[in-house]
Amino acid sequence: MVLLSLLVGATSADAGLYYSAEEYASLPSQWRGFLLDHRQLRNISVNPKDAAEIAPIRQSYLKEAEKLQARADKGPLTPDEAADLGAIHIRLGSPDRAIELLRKAHQAHPNHFAIAANLGTAWQQLGDLRQAEAALEQAVRLAPGKYLATEQAHLKLVRLRQRSQPGELDDLFGIRFVADKGGYEPGKLATTEMKKLPTKAIAIAQQLALWLPADGRLLWQLAELSNAHGDPRSAANMMEGCVVQFGMANPTLRKHRQLLRDVVEELPKAKLGADKEHAKDHVSTIAFRSRRPLISKFESLALPPIDAKGINTLPWELFHDTVIEKPFKASFPRYLQELQGKQVSLLGFMYPLRDDPEVPAFMFIEAPVGCWYCEMPETSGIVFVEMPPGQSTRYQRGLVRIVGRLLLNTSDPEEFLYTVKDARVGALD
User: What's the CA gap between 33 and 38, in Å, rounded?
Assistant: First the structure.
């Protein structure tokens, strides 16, 4: 399985969606890393019309599903394998197929925790909350002690959703997101409300959002928790995602979003290389335990043979697997090394180095960022793109494709790790 970055302090998945190839670091994770991995998990379920544009992480899940299905065709799967196959289909956005598999597995293994938990998540993804509740009740009953709190939160969420209207926000932790004066204020939460907030609230909400990355209401929950802990900038960024990416129109959410945006717009603008200065307006009281929630497993990424004379499509996972040691020494994946000097194609977003609509060079990143500090990619997630000598291109906000010659930096700490020279920039086909 392919995920984004190698982390320390790993644990197995807590509950909700069990897949043995998914490993989580200790939560909560820093917002920037969490949002990157959260987006990555959403990409697994995206099946574009053009097969060439399927994300490598989705391809890896499809490949693993084929392997397990081939095994199932020859004989019964073990309970763990059945749980895995169901989890993969949930990730791929096929809850009906997951339910078909997991119901049979549950009948054969009624006391298997991961099967019950995955079945509950599949029913929830399909929209049958009553069936989800029944399965999650069993998962809570079967949960080992260290997983119990998160399982209980998942069950509570499903019960809340049964009683709520579409688009209504969840009261997952039984608190009001207001300041001491009774109204909503950026970066503040009333002392009485903070005392009621569970110490593991953010870790629990992050885990739920990782199991259900297409659930915008969980992202809203995390935005409010971020603001409650003194970080309105990250909160504003997540609420922007709720509206733009998930199309949420809840009046309370939109009101809070606007209040946060008004405050954030007055904060200093982030600049490349100015992280420390920009961090001064972040006074979060969250004790983060990891940089990213998901642990990288690069070895199973399916990559096509390199075409020495043609154009080679690059997945971003390749860049994230680069290792940087101190003093500066970059170790690149073998596949990247073999692409040195060859033509490559990459999808992503332009990030200008200056305020000018016509640019001779720019940074290129995997996904757009609302806040450079909150969502700034790792150094290994930034590609420097140069146009041919004497040429420039107009800055574009949407997803674009670049084609050019890849160069790797192995020794200069003042330069970008990757440069694409003599680039061509164009919209998607």
Answer: 8
Residue 329: Cβ-neighbour burial (10 angstroms; 0-12, 13-18, 19+): exposed
**Residue 380 carries which DSSP code?**
G
Residue whose C-alpha is closest to residue 58's, from 250, 410, 302: 302
CATH class of 307-427: mainly beta
Beta pairing, strands 23-25 & 10-12: antiparallel
Cα–Cα distances in angstroms (integers) from residue 405 to residues 307, 367, 402, 418, 424, in the given order: 13, 21, 10, 10, 10
pTM of the model: 0.75
> Do the Cβ atoms of 208 and 154 come closer than 8 Å?
yes
Q: How many degrees, rounded to 5, is the angle at CA 405 between CA 389 and CA 299?
A: 155
Do the Cβ atoms of 116 and 147 come closer than 8 Å? no
- Taking CA atoms, 113 is separated from 117, 223, 350, in Å, by 6, 31, 45
1-302 folds as 1.25.40
Burial label for 417, CB within 10 Å (0-12, 13-18, 19+), is buried
Q: Tens of pLDDT along the chain (429 residues)?
A: 333 332 223 333 334 899 998 888 999 999 988 988 898 898 889 887 776 667 778 888 999 999 999 999 999 999 999 999 999 999 999 999 999 999 999 999 999 999 999 999 999 999 999 999 999 999 999 998 888 899 999 999 999 999 999 889 999 999 999 999 999 999 999 999 999 999 999 999 999 999 999 999 999 999 999 999 999 989 998 998 899 889 999 999 999 999 999 998 887 655 444 444 444 455 678 899 998 898 865 444 567 889 999 999 888 878 877 888 777 788 898 899 999 999 999 988 898 888 788 999 999 988 766 555 555 677 888 999 999 999 999 998 777 899 999 999 988 888 899 999 999 998 655
In 3D space, the residue among 27, 220, 213 whose CA is nearest the CA of residue 121 turns out to be 213
Q: Of the candidates 302, 396, 298, 304, which has an alpha carbon nearest to the alpha carbon of residue 348?
A: 396
The residues that bridge with 311 in the sheet, in sequence order, are 343
Rounded to an integer, what is the distance from CA 336 to the centroid of its chain?
A: 23
Do 1-302 and 307-427 come out as alike in CATH topology? Answer: no
- The residue extents of the domains of the chain are 1-302, 307-427
Are the C-beta atoms of residues 318 and 332 closer than 8 Å to each other? Answer: no
